[in-house]
Amino acid sequence: MPTQTADHEQSVADDRRAAQPGSLERGIDILLALSASSRPVSLSELCRSTGLPKSTAHRILGVLCARELARRVGNVYVPGEVLETMARTTRALVPGTRAVVLPYLLYLYEATRQTVNLAVPAGLEARYVERLYGHNRVGSRSDGTDRAPLHCTATGKALLAFDPRLRNELIARGPFERWTRRTVTTLTGLERELAQVRRHGVAYAQEEYTEGVACVAAPVFGPAGTVCMALGVAAPAHAAQLARLGISVRGAAQAISAAISPCPEPLRVP
């Protein structure tokens, strides 16, 4: 009889432990709470929404931050770069195939004879998913990595201007890194430029990321009307006719926005 009682108590204890959420489930609860919020979340708010003890939530957040699934900004938390990159890549799979988009990139290259870039947001960077190089191209810092900062590139500004959440995340991360003497590093200066982008539909970067390179870009909008990509042209700064390039880039971006909306298959981001 004592043995049966001990076995029963052990079984009850095992069932209780099995019913309790493990670290994986608790981590998922925290990530879901972070992703569902439109603003940074404090530790206390996470504890209230998940029901976790403060010590447990703090420990799990430490692991998530170390793996870049969450990020601490002062005394609050936001989704980490890995999570944001996954989300933005998913949002970039807009209706429209590579076969539909590429002819417009080729047209833009033929019209400008300069390097043509197609970028999507990846964390707090612009990720170039298609590039057609011009013969007289000037080397850029993005060569080899196909990534560049948002605040000092034309494609980045085109994305920032029409994505408030992306803009808020960049501001929260601050300060803005200076890459050249022309880099805009103040919030006031950047906001002034983004307002111009929203007004005219074209973004410019004149030797802000790489000396000798000028860029023009325009936003590409998906079926939901939200910005999903940016189309840009990079040219040698000394020879770039930015106003003329801007007209061509904006026209091509508008054509892509119209073309990808009705297409049944997604644009595949490599």
Automatic annotation (TrEMBL):
The keyword DNA-binding applies. Residues 1-18 have a biased composition (Basic and acidic residues). Residues 1-20 are annotated as: Disordered. It comes from the Bacteria. SUPFAM superfamilies: GAF domain-like (SSF55781), Winged helix' DNA-binding domain (SSF46785). Residues 81-262 form the IclR-ED domain. Keywords: DNA-binding, Transcription, Transcription regulation. The keyword Mitochondrion does not apply. Residues 21-81 form the HTH iclR-type domain. GO terms for molecular function: DNA binding; DNA-binding transcription factor activity. GO terms for biological process: negative regulation of DNA-templated transcription. InterPro entries: GAF-like_dom_sf, HTH_MetabolicPath_Reg, Tscrpt_reg_IclR_C, Tscrpt_reg_IclR_N, WH-like_DNA-bd_sf, WH_DNA-bd_sf. It holds the Pfam family HTH_IclR. This is IclR family transcriptional regulator.
